[in-house]
């Protein structure tokens, strides 16, 4: 998995995540948030790993992890917090507010 990816194809207001497995390579694109925070990479890596173990599919794991972390970081940004709001936004881990599908690339 590669996070915070910007390529020539990535719009300026977006950020890409890419993962691969035996079935192919997949990208999830989310809006870029006005936020620079510690721990976001650890959170997405942990969620991706958990979802890969549960589903066995990189595409689904990438979509689920990216969607949850986006919701978590959006709520953090909206609150103006410098700390990730893990407790206050914990429902994003179970049912993300917005789901970003993984696209084959």
What does this molecule look like?
This protein has 105 residues and is α+β, with helices and mostly antiparallel strands. It has one domain (2-104): Ribokinase (UDP-N-acetylmuramoyl-L-alanine:D-glutamate ligase), CATH 3.40.1190.20. It is 40% helix and 21% strand. The chain has three helices and four strands, in the order E-E-E-H-H-H-E. It has helices at 40-55, 58-79, 91-94; strands at 2-5, 14-21, 24-31, 103-104. A four-stranded antiparallel β-sheet has the order 1-2-3-4, with helices on one face. A hairpin with a 2-residue loop joins strand 2 and strand 3 (24-31).
Major sheet attributes: 4 strands, antiparallel
- Overall, the morphology is globular
Low-confidence stretches: none
End-to-end gap: 14 Å
What kind of assembly state do the chains in view correspond to? Answer: single chain
Give the name of the CATH superfamily: Ribokinase
Radius of gyration: 13 Å
Question: What's a quick, concise take on this entry?
Answer:
With 105 residues, the protein is α+β, with helices and mostly antiparallel strands. It is built from 3 helices and 4 strands; from the N terminus they run βββαααβ. The protein has a 4-stranded antiparallel beta sheet, covered by helices on one side.
Which features does this protein show?
UDP-N-acetylmuramoyl-L-alanine:D-glutamate ligase, alpha+beta, 4 strands, single chain
Which helices and strands, and how do they pair?
Elements: E1 2-5, E2 14-21, E3 24-31, H1 40-55, H2 58-79, H3 91-94, E4 103-104
Antiparallel strand pairs: 1-2, 2-3, 3-4
